[in-house]
User: Fold D-malate dehydrogenase (decarboxylating) from Lysinibacillus telephonicus.
Amino acid sequence: MRKIDIAVIPGDGIGREVVPESLRILDLLSEIHGGFKFEKKLYPYSCDYYEEHGKMMPDDGFQQLSQHDAIFLGAIGDPKRVPDHIALWQTVIGLRREFQQVINLRPVKSLKGITSPLRGDKNFDFIVVRENSEGEYSQVGGTIHQDNDEIAIQTNVFTRKATEGVIDFAFQLANDRNHKLTSATKSNGLYHSMPFWNRVFTETEAKYEDIETELIHIDALSAFFVTKPESFDVIVASNLFGDILSDLGGAIMGSIGIAPSANINLNGKYPSMFEPVHGSAPDIYGKNIANPIGQLWTAKLMLEHFGYEEIGNLLLNTIEELLVDNVKTPDLGGNYGTTEFIDALFEKLKKQ
Ligand SMILES: NC(=O)c1ccc[n+]([C@@H]2O[C@H](COP(=O)([O-])OP(=O)(O)OC[C@H]3O[C@@H](n4cnc5c(N)ncnc54)[C@H](O)[C@@H]3O)[C@@H](O)[C@H]2O)c1
Ligand SMILES: O=C(O)C[C@@H](O)C(=O)O
Ligand SMILES: [K+]
Ligand SMILES: [Mn+2]
Assistant:
């Protein structure tokens, strides 16, 4: 029996609802499979922890987490209690950097059984590859002066190493998929970073044959997400562009609550981290109405990461069957609570 040792961080808000519920399903899946088991260690790092300790994690928090095979995270953030940049940089964003999770994979796919005005009758299946360690997300800069003279400076950082890394990864992925790669750019308005990004894209392209490519400005690309999502295969984007596109990806699928993501460490030195695209949703926390599919689909990505693609497919297929039977949480127009959805999924999986 293979033991996979994961760190579990439910975090804040609905993370505390969808993570424990998803663990019930993960345990059942490992039982059904019979060949592996998740050993789980729970970490309470959250805004509650901050209120008690003045920081989101203990000083050796990263060290503790680095010992695990993977991190399964819900969401961090409660801006009424802790400023978002503090809460996120001390946890998710810091972890992505420290653990060199340079790639963030965010699949976007029309699921059976979901209708939405944005989706219409379109079918699509693509993946956003988000640069995950630098770009527009940087701590370089500062604020000076007061009142009317106040200045805030935020410097973007685009290294050749990370830019080439993410673009090359996306080319390889397109090569394994349907041979089309779209790059999000904004080389009209951003004078230095995006012309550089485009140049690296064009240089990398020369290494690959038979990949259809397009460079599309982020504003137009956002519109195409809505009007022709079926035209995409792989999309490569900088940190901020990829962040924004992936919520839009959730919206065209029918709900931000179903979008999954995987923060991938490629060099094997640190664990990868699996968390849904959505945040802690303080507006719906405590009502048992959060959609757990984003967290579950994220669990599927984690299963694939450890080589259990088949059982991951079983999970997503069974979710689709439930959706077709109108077993849905309110964000998708249904009347199932989080727990009731998981109960229904549990029963259906047990019958397989
Ligand atoms: N990686 C992360 O941990 C992460 C990601 C995004 C936002 N955040 C943080 O979460 C907090 C809230 O951020 P936000 O409101 O911008 O984004 P959000 O994703 O938490 O919520 C946006 C909207 O989508 C809805 N929603 C989100 N997930 C849902 C689900 N599973 N089921 C049903 N509805 C769902 C919410 O109710 C809300 O109306 C902030 O503190 C933010 O910084 C953290
Ligand atoms: O900006 C971020 O990366 C945090 C959150 O919005 C996410 O998408 O994970
Ligand atoms: K999240
Ligand atoms: Mn986001």
Q: What stands out?
A: The pocket of nicotinamide-adenine-dinucleotide (ligand 1) is lined by residues 14, 75-79, 84, 88, 92, 256-257, 275, 278-284, 290-291, 294, 331 (CB under 6 Å). The chain is about 40% helix and 20% strand. The two ends are 21 Å apart (CA to CA).
